[in-house]
Design a protein that fits this description.
The longest helix has 17 residues, at about 55-70. Helices cover about 45% and strands about 15% of the residues. The chain has helices at about 25-35, 40-50, 55-70, and strands spanning about 1-5, 10-15, 20-25. Strands 1-2-3 form a three-stranded antiparallel sheet. The chain has a domain at about 25-75. Strand 2 (about 10-15) and strand 3 (about 20-25) form a beta hairpin.
């Protein structure tokens, strides 16, 4: 995976699929955060803080972004032993 970032945009290039992905600001923020082990709650809190969203809206947007990334094979869900 090759990544190009600038203040205005983030572009991913999957070298195996030869596919480009242009991320909007929210997806780029999520992408930066999922490069380390992180919980959904931590992601949601980061979106609330960064974008000034209500928690419910941040959760809905986050789920949408993560589902799209997972569908495209950009991320994989990791199992956790965390008790919520």
């Amino acid at each position: 995976m090759m990544i190009t970032t600038s203040p205005q945009r983030t572009i991913l290039f999957d070298t195996d699929k030869r596919q480009y992905y242009r991320l909007d600001e929210m997806a780029a923020t999520v992408w930066k955060l999922v490069n380390r082990p992180v919980t959904l709650r931590e992601l949601q809190d980061a979106l609330v803080e960064h974008f000034g969203l209500e928690p419910e809206i941040a959760e809905r947007e986050l789920v949408s972004v993560l589902e799209q990334m997972q569908t495209e094979g950009l991320i994989e869900e990791q199992a956790t032993d965390e008790v919520v």
